[in-house]
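Suppose you are handed only these lines of text.
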Amino acid sequence: MSKKFRIFATSDIGESIDVLRKRGYEVEVYDWPQAPPKKLILEKVKSGIDGLITTLRDPIDAEIFEAGKGSLKVVAQIAVGFDNINRADANRYKVPFTHTPDVLTEATAEFAFLMMGALARKMWTAEHLTRDNKWGYWHPYLPFLGDEVTGKTIAIIGTGRIGLAMIKKCAGFDMDMLCYDSAYQNHEYIKAIQEVKDLRYARGITRQKTFIKYVSLEEALKDADFVSIHVPLLREGESSTPTYHLVNERTLRMMKPTAFLVNSSRGPVVDEKTLARALKENWIAGAALDVYEKEPLPADSPLRDPAIADRCRLYPHFASAARITRLSTDPNKGMAGRCVQGLIDVLEGNYGGDVTRMPYVVNKEAFAQAS
Ligand code: GLV
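From them, the structure of the protein bound to glyoxylic acid can be written out as follows.
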């Protein structure tokens, strides 16, 4: 390769770093497990790097793009979500940024499903009972019972890639499904799932007829036993359909007191303070969360209140944290592989150098030819 590209990675992403080095890239990796201070990212960008590998912990905005003026050619994010990158700023500075869609779709949906089960069947509380040596007897209903997931009604809020994968998992558990998405609907997929459901009934695999349909947000929330969130975080002004605090007092109060909330999308989609109150005052039965308004979850978060511990499962932004999903160097399997491929596409001018044709570039609109 004629030119040696210089890269700064704000985090180690495993063997994919070697993939770049083998291609002759000069790659510096921030080796601490925590996110680097913004000052350091600015310093590296100012030093003239060609590419920046980022995680969802790094705020990437005008200040960064200004520092990289004339040298920074690409920001490659190892995540599907990119709310930490200011898209308008990237567009103003005409810097393409990439993400890693698809490769984490199944892992994330699977985790959402599993934490829903852990919550409803009280698996954490039940394990504690055993471990803490408080399992004193087998009894038909003491000290507590859980709720079954099979055959229940779930509201799928957001029917993008991960929402659709969640639907696929829920279909296997014969759940009725109420889907809502204000921005993107996939009626073909929903129709295909209904066909699968009908076949399961026709062949006697399931004894109940079950359904899937798009409904209004209110209908979805009001009739569901489980509500699972799969929308991107869009703040006011970023979209005509913002999702910031979509789960708030008004929407939580629409849910049944026996219903459970599951969030594997982005923390700020849920008004956490209100959710903690909702759990404490029994507006809803429980919540399983993998993402938070502030990460890591602060020590004084009301979600840590021991009074709601049996009804509130808390995970450390872990849904995509499966070995192959996170680290495979294969761009068709791993986030790390896909992240590096996105970076290579831009720097090496794949797709004839046409950014709008590069599959992992997010802000294609900034590069479309004015016609
Ligand atoms: C993980 O949260 C991601 O957005 O990839």
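What can we learn from it? The chain has a mean pLDDT of 97. The first strand starts at residue 6 and ends at 9.
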